[in-house]
Amino acid sequence: MSISSMQDLLADFADRRDWNRYHTPKNLAMALAGEAGELAAEFQWLEQDEAFRVMDDPEKAKAVRLEMADVLSYLLRMATVLDIDLEAALKEKVAINEDRFPPRSS
Amino acid sequence: MSISSMQDLLADFADRRDWNRYHTPKNLAMALAGEAGELAAEFQWLEQDEAFRVMDDPEKAKAVRLEMADVLSYLLRMATVLDIDLEAALKEKVAINEDRFPPRSS
Amino acid sequence: MSISSMQDLLADFADRRDWNRYHTPKNLAMALAGEAGELAAEFQWLEQDEAFRVMDDPEKAKAVRLEMADVLSYLLRMATVLDIDLEAALKEKVAINEDRFPPRSS
Amino acid sequence: MSISSMQDLLADFADRRDWNRYHTPKNLAMALAGEAGELAAEFQWLEQDEAFRVMDDPEKAKAVRLEMADVLSYLLRMATVLDIDLEAALKEKVAINEDRFPPRSS
């Protein structure tokens, strides 16, 4: 499933619930920060090695998976309402980082 | 470009810089919260209608685009290190929300 | 109640539960981001004027109050474990902002 | 300096810059999430023991101190505009946690 198919799925979901009036760029940026905070909360008291094993516990695994889906959903909705090509943005950022952080010489 | 191709691109980028030791689930969750906070900061003093026009200003547009790319990058890296299928997670979440929030009757 | 009295109260609370091992600077910074995200979530779909009236609803008022207390708690715990004088930090920041943002001429 | 004196200092600072129109509850909640994200970013790649030593580096120490001051500032501004007694809220939360998390028997 491409990024744009996911965006279409979520746009349709919002349309059918009349949620577009809530899905403003400002509100979505706030919702994204909220979900990212909730995702961070799943890991806040864990040691690094415990955090690697978080998916071994079915209940925690589900929580992490769904929080990540929430972050992705709001990011995709923001991309839709601001008409941003996320794939192009990712490539733009990677190109910048290629310059800023040259790979180790081998 | 599929989600998994993007993950491969970022995994390769991290590999070539020896960054895998930093890219633990806990650190990535923290970095994601940081980037989501920076993205929110782009919108914090804007009125709703100003936020819709944020992409009209080339400098602000670039800032928003790159912050969104940062959020996406850390989300994809988390999916990789935790071996989470983001597309499946999104569908799982949408199915839950289909039940929780039935569409308006037409 | 002074900032330092609040810090003492929370330090004692953590001591009696053997929570100091969890209250590392990194974990507390993560927990603070999590709580700030949850606080933002209380306001994400509200219009500006609705947000001003959030304290009129007893249930929402309690949620906002307790989320703000959570943010304050983790900030105070961070100040304790990093030995930071929050009052001095606030004054330092205000002095910087006095220079950066001169008041309107009257 | 009491919490309320700090609030007065910041209220006066905002008044003299005509910033009250920006300092709405929604905007402040968003700004708080942004600053909490920036504070988290100071710690995201650090190991737990490195994070304890963050104040040994004068430049990093200043960054952490000022980010914490920013979080405190927006929290205090929110308390002012929503007319919330932060000290009472903290005590309310501590009382709830006293019940939820009984101290270890000694």
Automatic annotation (TrEMBL), chains A, B, C, D:
Coiled coil: none
GO molecular function: nucleoside triphosphate diphosphatase activity
Pfam family, one: MazG-like
InterPro entries: dCTP_Pyrophosphatase, DCTPP
CDD domains assigned: NTP-PPase_RS21-C6_like
GO biological process: nucleoside triphosphate catabolic process
UniProt KW keywords: Hydrolase
PANTHER family per record: DCTP PYROPHOSPHATASE 1
Annotated protein name in UniProt: NTP pyrophosphatase (Non-canonical NTP hydrolase)
Protein source organism: Nocardiopsis composta
Lineage per the UniProt record: Bacteria, Bacillati, Actinomycetota, Actinomycetes, Streptosporangiales
